[in-house]
Amino acid sequence: MDAGLLQQMLLGALLGLSVYLPLRCGQLSLASPGFYAIGGTIAALLSTRLPALGGASATYPISSVLLEMGLAAALTGAIAAAIGSVVLRLRGIYLAIATIALVEILRVITLNLAITGGALGIFGIPQPFNGPEGYAFFTAALLALVCWLCDRLERTRPGLAMAAIRDDELAAASQGIDTAQIKLLAFVLSAVVAGITGVVAAHFLNSWNAKLGNFDASITTLAFVVLGGSRTWLGPVLGGLLLTALPEVLRPVGDLRLIVFGLVILLGPLLFPQGLISPERLQSLGRLWPGPKRLGRQAP
Amino acid sequence: MTAPLLALDGLSCRFGGLVAVGQVSFAVQPGEIFGLLGPNGAGKTTLFNLISGITPPSGGSVHWRGSTITGLPSHRIARLGIARTFQNLRLFGSLSCLENVLVGLHKRSRQPLIPALLGNGLFRRRQAQLEEEALALLRLLDLEPWAKQRAASLAYGDRRRLEIARALATGPELLLLDEPAAGLNPREKQELSALIRSIREQFNLSVLIIEHHVPLMMELCDRLAVLNFGERIALGTPEQVRRDPAVIEAYLGTSR
Ligand SMILES: Nc1ncnc2c1ncn2[C@@H]1O[C@H](COP(=O)(O)OP(=O)(O)OP(=O)(O)O)[C@@H](O)[C@H]1O
Ligand SMILES: [Mg+2]
Q: What is the span of the domain harbouring residue B215?
């Protein structure tokens, strides 16, 4: 497979996980592309404007990328904590609308600031790897780390509390769960995952502009989770990988691909209302093949 | 006399022009089974919502062991030791019975971060301990065989008992039961009555119970309050309440 496509798929999987985290506690937030854009902008700005990071050398140091990721995580986390404590009081579709507005506001700001290069964006972002293979390795490792953290989250107390809130928020609060705190945790983690994904994406794409975090991106990333399933982390990963690959794989059929893509997004949820991956389906798979049994267990 | 566990002082709740609860006062003593009777729409469930912090009162106050808890959010109230069940069953439908009870254990299931991240022996031992505790509660309510089943798939009576198991898991000193016998057959009602008594002994708690089945309430409760149109019209032992003319007119008189 083309390493460039693989890299895009891995980025899609990471964004899927970002949308999944709030959704797992029943919060339909579409803010992920906004935080993704913040991460990308941080990476683009720092690596092109701060010579100390090593932008002039032939290969940009990985340590500088990691530093950008750390900064992006801190900043997106802090912004999410501040915004979330207000926005998460909204429920259902109202939260979705508020987060779309947030993404739009960020886009318009990026578009109008001189430092972010306006509509053209920032070019010539230095490359830490010589080709897409290096990116794919790096991103695969990052994805593995995030998946592992999500898996631990699902098997521990906050994960169970998230599932309880998704099923019935009022009843969850009546069991002593600080629902506002748990929802905020999910929202902040979601923002951090999107932010660090943006950093990697900015380097990979070589240029960064305001269009990368827009409403279309919100809907596409939501489709990852709707198709893959929002009950366990494997769902959005699969959804992100599949739906990022699909338009490329379908390129030979020409314009028809948009129709096929639309059909998949339409038929997926119709045929699999819970998404492709659900704990029950993993369990029945596990009975056939003892390997992945652990994946589905205890993932409410 | 010891200080009351729970005391309501002139508690009121209005929905627009409707007074759902009007100036209700009474106190629940430690170890007591206290009944709440009243016709449909009398404001009983609303009173539970006021006590458990789900609905903010429009007047009056709630006291827990002498200090006021009026207006606290419901998770804080739950952590203080007031647990409740819901008249219209609010289980976590997609979770297993065991997980439902584990959610009830939330307050006590905190684990240190590093072992939880690693999933090491320390974490697993503690997790096994919590699951054993949850299983013991399921056993007590005859639900153990369904431990791994989704709560939504249970029969109605089993779901009612699962609500009680989950509430007990929070480690309450006061258990609010909202029509726990609704939809149960006469034999199940009798068993429930015995169960509530044994729970009181075993967990050393007080019970505030709403129930329409008057004979069951008369036999089960130490004291009763009767609500009608949001107002407390009677308070006393089952014998006193039975003879109260206001009660006979408002409630028992309708011979339901
Ligand atoms: N959230 C609400 N908004 C508006 N009115 C409400 C609300 N909750 C309850 N009410 C009204 O308050 C009154 C008391 O309702 P409540 O549910 O407390 O009665 P109840 O005694 O529990 O009755 P039942 O025996 O039928 O359960 C009713 O008239 C009801 O319609
Ligand atoms: Mg009621």
A: 6-81+172-252
In this structure, which residue's CA is closest to atom 25 in ligand 1?
B40
Question: Contact B119/A155, CB-based, under 8 Å?
Answer: yes
Q: B67 CB less than 6 Å from ligand 1?
A: no
Distance between A206 CA and the closest CA of chain B, angstroms:
35
Query: For residues B53 and B13, what is the distance between their CA atoms, to the nearest angstrom?
Result: 12
The B82-84 sheet, strands edge to edge? B82-84, B174-178, B206-210, B33-37, B223-228, B231-236
- B28 within domain boundaries: yes
Residue pLDDT, tens place only, A149-173: 999 999 999 999 999 999 999 999 9
Cβ A300–B117 below 8 Å, yes or no?
Answer: no
Q: Is B43 in the pocket of ligand 1 (CB under 6 A)?
A: yes
The structure's pTM equals 0.91
The domain tally of chain B equals 1
What is the domain partition of chain A in residue ranges?
A: 3-222
Rounded distance between C-alpha atoms, residue A40 and residue B154, angstroms: 49
ipTM: 0.92
Helix (H, G, I), strand (E, B) or coil at B209: strand
